[in-house]
Write a structure and sequence with these properties.
The protein is an alpha+beta fold. The protein is built from six helices and seven strands, in the order αβαβαβββαββαα.
């Protein structure tokens, strides 16, 4: 395993594996917030929304063959680790299906990566921030993400 997790390599690998398996998906979470806001956003993992109708056995097999290791299976997610150590979470939610279909595309290292549209990402983040079962620190992060996505971007030269 490499010394540092590699978000870009993990994102490229998961995209290529899911595309090859014909699984509809799109980038979400903190990495997507950074792309849409233009402000780098610290995040522990790379989050991908996957069509809720996807055959989980097929997509898991594709990702294991691509070198990912399974770290957890939950009702609404599959957690993996890329060879570099980067955690990747695949999220399954019927609410995300239309968002995946509307996804925009960004190109990274000659790979076209689907990313949910900014308005859809705001909707996701507002929903997560309103979930009373979600840990308080995550709800706060979600509210901060909504503010970033709506344009409350810090000026690097501003003071306290």
């Amino acid at each position: 395993m490499a010394d540092a997790a590699d978000k870009i390599a993990a994102l490229l690998a998961v995209t290529r594996a899911l595309d090859a398996a014909g699984v509809a998906h799109a980038l979400i979470g903190g990495v997507a917030v950074g792309v849409h806001s233009g402000v780098p956003r610290a995040t522990l993992d790379t989050d991908i929304a996957v069509a809720s109708t996807a055959d989980r056995a097929v997509l898991e097999r594709a990702l294991l063959q691509a070198g990912f290791a399974r770290t957890g299976v939950f009702a609404h997610s599959l957690n993996l680790r890329h060879l570099s150590g980067e955690p990747v979470q695949l999220a399954f939610d019927p609410m995300f299906d239309a968002m995946i279909q509307r996804a925009d595309r960004i190109v990274v290292s000659d790979t076209s990566i689907p990313i949910v549209q900014k308005d859809d990402l705001i909707t996701m983040k507002e929903r997560a921030a309103a979930d009373p079962a979600r840990r308080s620190s995550k709800r706060l992060r979600d509210r901060a993400d909504v503010a970033l996505l709506k344009g409350d971007v810090p000026d690097p030269d501003e003071g306290w």
